[in-house]
Structure formats: structure tokens, C-alpha cells
Amino acid sequence: MAILISFDIDGTMEFGDPPGGITLEMVRRAQELGFLIGSCSDRPPSAQQALWEKHDIRADFVAPKHGLDEVKSRFEADDYLHIGDRDTDQQFAERAGFRFYWAYDAIHEPWLTLGDAQDLP
Amino acid sequence: MPKQSPIPDELDRPFWAACNEGRLVIQHCTRCDRLQHPPEPTCAQCGSADNLEWRQVSGRGRIYSYAVMYDTPVTVLQADQPFNIVVITLEEDPGIQMLSHLPGTTVDQVPWGASVQVEFETTPNGQKVPEWRVVG
Amino acid sequence: MPTKVPNAPESWYRTREGLGIWPHRGKVAAVGVGLSPTARRWDGRPETSVGAWSILALRKAMEDAGVSPDQVDGLVMAQDTATGSPWPPGKPVPEDFLTTFQPTDDPLDGLTRLSAEWILQNTPELTNVKFTMYGPGCMSNAIVVAAQAVGEGLTDTCLVLKGWHNLEGRYYVGQGAAAEDTIAGRAKWTTGWGTVACYPTAMHFEAYCRKYGVTRDMHAPFVVNSRKNGLLFPEGFYAQHRPEPLTVEDYLSARWIAKPASLLDNDLPICVSAAYLFTTPERARDMKQKPVYILNHASDRIKIRSVMPTLEETEECAASNARKLYEGAGITANDLSFEGMYDGFGQFHVFHLEGLGFRGVKRGDALHFFQTDISIEGWNPVSPSGGNIGSGRTRFWHHTDAIQQIQGRAGKRQIWRKAEVGVTGGPFPYGGNFTVWGATPG
After folding, report:
1. Chain B hits for C189, Cβ within 8 Å
2. Nearest CA to C191 among C175, C205, C207, C178?
3. Do A44 and C250 touch (CB under 8 A)?
4. Segment C263-313, tens digit of pLDDT
5. Chain C residue with Cα closest to B34
6. Which residue from A72, A63, A17 is spatially nearest to A44, judged by alpha carbons?
7. pLDDT above 60: residue A118
């Protein structure tokens, strides 16, 4: 089951400003499970790329926050998730057909069970 | 699209009352023979309050410029984003402006300089507001 | 302790053309600069509140100038420190803030606004301040007021202060009147239609591009250059927290706020404070830094005809402002070594630059000019501070930079050509306060 997870950065990732609850370990775990991972944030794409590289993670995509639809068109997946901390994250995610998770819920890594075809809450 | 409903006040009540009657009126100083909008307690040119009256205008105008709103602060408008906000100038005096969402025109397909005609849209509290539609 | 601190009288502002040379030209000097750290949002600690950081900035400005606190006899500041998200109604003021600082009658003083009373109560070493006045809004206003006050002899060693706080929440979105189902007052004609702060500028820029046959992508080099300059400002937000250069692609892909204005045409609200020390040339001789002379100040009080300024009103206001600045300083556009006009919203700079006629730029030319070398290494340095685009929303990086450029201590931002005369100010090209700075009294 191909799954794509997009992370917002500020307020979502541990290296965001402010730091969020999603750790690099969680991202690495998702990547090890074969998920496509990347970020859609109001940070400029070039800065997002630099942040992933700084933390030694090869992101499959970076895009501006409103670029989720373009990400969806580039990658074929069975499920698309966006994790964020703002109403704008939710709006852009739902508009692009992504399932949205608030960052504070996503710290439980609900995607870990997706490979077993368990439904998301 | 749903808008915030205007609450008329002492100064602009005649404007909104006229809207409810399907008429567009603008404050006019008879001494200066000059329109002014938004309404003010005195004429911005001569400073007098004694010569202000409400004058009906044709309801014809032109598109001056616009921007497309993608991130409005106004809650009731957010569901309709993105939407046009167009600056209209009146035929009688191009110095007089009104804003419009330009109903009937696709987002970001605003015809530059086009002629427009006023129409009146009812807001949730029943107050009508002037809106503008491209004509011709 | 001042009982009631006044705003500056309207007569102090030079709002008309034809006033001749400013009577105090070269008789007021900026010497010291003090800046607090920066943060994206307040973290809730008393020591990072806007009050605390403002005190820190004041102390740094005095130290920078080599002035002891008891020598300071004036304080000019802006009271408003808001960036767009209000203190939640009913939320109590943190107890540790109340115990750390001496409060005024307003429990949010020092947290979401800043009075001169609060500053003086909590900066006890300022024992000799006899003159206090507000220059409301921006540092640009406070500078004009302080310059006039020193020129008038009301204070001879004057601190100038502006602080900003930024709380959780979105910039004015869904707050106050914007959250209501009804709309009252003047907002019926403007914000009730859904406009956001950058709307008038976006609308002007759309009209500008059509009028002069230019395109928005031509604005990108200015934004990229501004961020580049900002990353050379060690006190700036991006240099401290997000040392990320911008690319043209970043600019062009940023999400729209009010098209043609995008997220990167809007500035990032932050927490920060700045202070300067102004004095007379005579007193400046004994201070640590080279004096930077104020050659003139000017202000706009545009009366727009209708709902919002037109492009034509904006262009004429910016041009008139430049004429006032040059006339009062006794200079021409050719004398400018650099310009540091306001950039938050980014497109403001187009109108400011053309109004000034910087490097001969005429109406409709600015975006073409941005395709040339506008870097600090070239002959035509545009916004060497990087402004708000380069360092976050303060409306004072350009003033700080102008002082430091002329003092020759702008570090890696130091422009290649000799910095002798600069002009700064803002916010709007259709209304604001502006200053001409010089290396000599004129």
C-alpha cells in the first residue's frame, strides 16, 4: 500500500519554529516502511530542502503550503496524509484531497497501522 | 456570495435606505458641486456640513483595478476563496470608488477597464448592498 | 515621572512642500544603536516580553553611544507594539510578569503595549528623563519626533524606542470585526468586502503592471536581494533563526494572499525592540560612535478622494514626499549614497523608489531597475538593510542600517561605495514619516 505523508514544518516538526511534536525519528520510521515523505510548508521550498538535508533525510518532495495538489499529481499513492498545526494546513489538505491530521494527534504515528489496512480514526 | 451585513448609522442611513429601494445615492456638496464617498459629516473640500445632500447616480461605472483574495480575514467570506475584489469608479465621477466582488465574473478573469452596472444584493440581515456586474 | 505623556503636536511634522531648509538641519545626530534579540512569537517568559526587550534595547543604545543613564534627559517612543494577534480576552496576565516588573494602571502594559510610564518605572537608572513624548505607530514617526525635540532644545540626550510583540494566532484573520456576521463604521466600505492589509498595495501593483507593461516576476530580484542583505544583519530574525536565502523560484511559487501579493510580499511578524540615542552635535563629540546627522524629516498626510488611494495618488504622494525631503535637506536625488525605504509590503518599495527618483528611476522604471545590479556590492544599493523582507517585520531595520552605514559599521552589509547620505522611512508611499541622514551636518 503506497502512502504519502506531507509534513508542515513550523509548529509541526521538532525542528520547526516553534518546535512541534513530530520527531525526525518518526519521519525516518515512516520512510523505512516505504512511505513517501516530504514537506508542504510556508517555508520557501529551497529552505525546506535545506532543512531535510541538514537533518540527513532524503525528502521525496518539498512544496509550498498550497502545493499539495501538485504533489498529489506527481506521486501515485493509495493514501495521502498531511500533518499540520494550522487551519490553513487543514484547508489546503482537504482542498487537495489529503487526509489531515493535527500535529498533536499525529505524534501517535497513526500511519504506522495503515500498512495493515486498519482504518484511520 | 454571503457577505457581512452592513449596519447603517446616522451618517450613511440614506445610502443604505436607497439601496433597499434599488437606488444608488452618493453624498453631494451643492456648494462645491462635488460628490464624495464614503459619506462624511462635512464636505472634504469646503468643510461645510450645510450643503451636503444625497444625489442619485446612474449606477454605471468602470473597473479601475482589482486583486484576488486568497486569505481574507473575514470569516463569512472564507468559504468562497479565492474571490475577486474589484475597485469600481463611477461614471459621474471617476474619483468616486466602490468595492465589488464582481458577481458573474470568473475569479481572476476581470476584464480590465470594463463597463459595469450596479445591482443590489441582499445580505443576511435583509440590508441590500450595491454590487456590480460587467455589461456590454 | 511624567503624568500624561503627549503625542507630538501636528505642527512638528513637515507635511508641505515649500518649507525650505529644515531649521535644525545638521543640529541633531544619531549616535547609539541598541537591538534586542528576535523571536517569532513570545514564549511567555517575563524576560522576553516586549517590555523587557525594550529595556534591553535602551541599555544597549546607551552603552553603544557611551552614555551613562543619568545623562539621558529625553525619551520618545511608540506605544503600540501589536503585530496582529491580540491578547486573548479574559486570559490572565502571568503572575511572574507582574512580580518581575512594576505595573502601571494597565496590566498588559509591557506585554501588548508599552507606555513611557512603564519604561521609566522599570528602567530605574534613567533618573533624569524630563522630556517624554510619543511618536505613534512606527519608529519612523518616533525618529521624526525625537529629531524635532532635540532640534527644538527640549532634550539633548534622547532615547528613541520602538518595540514589537507577537503572540500566538493568525494575522488579524477571523478576529474582532472580521469574525462578525455584521459590519459597522467605515469598514463597511473596505474591509467588509474581505480586504486584507496588503490589498490596496496589491491592487495598486496590478494597476501599475498594466499601466507600464511590466510583470510581477520582475519584482523577484528585489525580494531575493533583500533577503540576501537581511541575512547579513546579525541582529535580524532570519539571520538568527532561519538563515535561508530566497530564490526567484521560491518567490514565484509562494502562496497568494491577495494576488498579485503573495506570502513573500508580506512580512513576518516577530518580537523585537530597537532603540537609538539622539543628541546634539556638541554632545556627540564626547560619545563613542561617529555622529550621523539628521538633515531633514518629512511626513505625508495624504487626503484620499474616496475608498482607497489610487495608483496615481500613491505615485504623486511618493514624489511629493521626495521633493519635501530633498528641499529640507538641501540635497537632490543625486546625493543619495543609498536608500532604505520601507518594504513591508514588498511592492511599497517600487513606489518609494520611483518617488525618490533614486538613480534616475522614473515612474514605471523600478522593475526594470531591479533587473540591474542593486546589490550592496554595486553602485546602486537598494535597501541594504534588507528591510522587513530580509529580517522580519519591525519597520526599523532600514533606520538602524542607515545609521550604521554612515558610521561605517554595517559589517558585511556595508555598501561598497562611501555611505554619505541616505534616506529612510515609511510605512506607506501614500503616508508616513521619512528622514534624511548624513555623514556631515550639511
Report:
1. 37-38, 98-99
2. C178
3. yes
4. 999 999 999 999 999 999 999 999 999 999 999 999 998 889 999 999 999
5. C305
6. A63
7. no
Pick the CATH number of C10-170+269-284 from 3.40.50.300, 1.10.340.30, 3.40.47.10, 2.30.30.220: 3.40.47.10
Residue located via cell numbers 470585526: C177
Cross-chain Cβ contact C170/A86 below 8 Å: yes
Indicate whether B46 belongs to any domain: yes
Residue B116 to residue B133: CA distance in whole angstroms: 5
- Reported as a single tens digit per residue, the pLDDT across A3-58 is 999 999 999 999 999 999 999 999 999 999 999 999 999 999 999 999 999 999 99
Mutation target for B interface from C183, C264, C265: give the one with most B CBs within 10 A. C183
Closest Cα to residue C393, out of C165, C201, C108, C85? C165
Each residue's pLDDT tens digit, C159-197: 999 999 999 877 777 778 899 999 999 999 999 999 999
Q: Where are the alpha helices (DSSP H) in B9-96?
A: 13-20
Q: Where do the H-state alpha helices sit in chain A?
A: 24-32, 45-54, 68-74, 87-95, 103-106
- CATH number at A100 reads 3.40.50.1000
The answer to the question of residue B6 being in a domain is: no
Residue C269 is which amino acid? P
Query: Is A118 within a domain?
Result: no
Is C247 at the interface with chain A, CB within 8 A? Answer: yes
Q: Looking at CA atoms only, how far is residue B69 from chain C in angstroms? A: 4
Chain C residues inside the 8 Å CB shell of A46: 244-247, 249-250
pLDDT score of C334 more than 50: yes
Which chains neighbour A (Cβ–Cβ under 8 Å, 3 or more pairs)?
C
Point out the residue among C173, C175, C199 whose CB comes nearest to the CB of B85.
C199
DSSP C133-151: EE--SSHHHHHHHHHHHHH
Which of C41, C244, C256 lies nearest to residue A44, judging by beta carbons?
A: C244
Assigned CATH for C196-266+293-442: 3.40.47.10
- Using the predicted structure, report yes or no on whether residue C2 has a pLDDT greater than 60: no
